[in-house]
Amino acid sequence: MKAFVKYCLLFSTPILLLLGAYIYFDPFKVIWHYDCYYVEGDGAPVNRNFVSTMNYLNKKDIYHYDSFIFGNSRSMYFMVDDWKKHLPPQSSCYHFSESSGSINGLYYKLKLIDERGGQLNNALLIIDYGVLRKLQQNGIAFIMPPVLTGYRNVVRFHGEHFMRWLNVRFLAYWAEYQLTGIYKDYMTDFIYKGTNYKYYNPITNEEPLCHQDSLIEAGKYYTKAVVAGFKADHKQTTAQQMIDDDAKLQRLRAMRQIFDKHHTDYRFIISPLYNQVKLNPADYQILCDIFGKEHIYDFSGANKWTTDYHNYYEWSHYRPVVAAELMDSVYSH
Fold first, then answer.
1. I want to staple 266 with a disulfide (CB 3.0 to 4.6 A). Which of 74, 89, 123, 294 is the partner?
2. In this predicted structure, what is the pLDDT of residue 65?
3. Whole-angstrom Cα distance, residue 111 to residue 148?
């Protein structure tokens, strides 16, 4: 019996030490409270959905947000200062973004605002066929924050983060980056440099790509390597239908109910992606049927923005100047 206990202690000690270190250092910022979740030099990537949610809960009673921009990482370049030009002057804006995006990601955020007594006067939702493809997401960078799901996924959420912590390469690169402060190219798949974290605004939850913009202004961004990532001969194609089951339809209808309850002025912008993939007509019609055609603005496919790579950082993310023009177009109606 003693031998068995000794064996168990020997086996469990390394895991317990790693667990203690994980809780103490909290590399993914999912355990302790933070006034600002983005700090340059931290190294470990964070779940944008978790940050957006917890930052909102931490600050909602201070700033009394009543206007929200929802969507995936493409929504990040719809700057609050540009949006405010189209809103009542007293509006308090928050950028409620996530990585990649899903229908549940949109719905649960609206539900949280509603259930926590928040106001929802204005909403700008940035979507595309990729957001509509998924009801929900998995993976350390995408898994839903437990507070949004009523803590139904709390074990899986923290389990996925702890398993990434146990990855030998992650641990080695994270420790090296913490000790030296030097980011090296071989760390790319595990460590995030956070070049733009210094520009993060924890009040609006905006993280503009100021470093890239400064390179563009200096004429140094669109190098041969960057330009090679854009297809010069791309042509418009049509995405397959994404809203293809009752679960998605139910979530979208529930979103409409929340908008109606709050008498929200809401607009959907369907992103102009450089690959010129057009939203499927069936999906467009479903969105119009549920939310009203006057609330759906489709900029997908071939247009003046998607024919010039200078409007983009890379094929997937367009620049704030494009986002501002889209808002001007939407709110001119």
1. 123
2. 98
3. 8
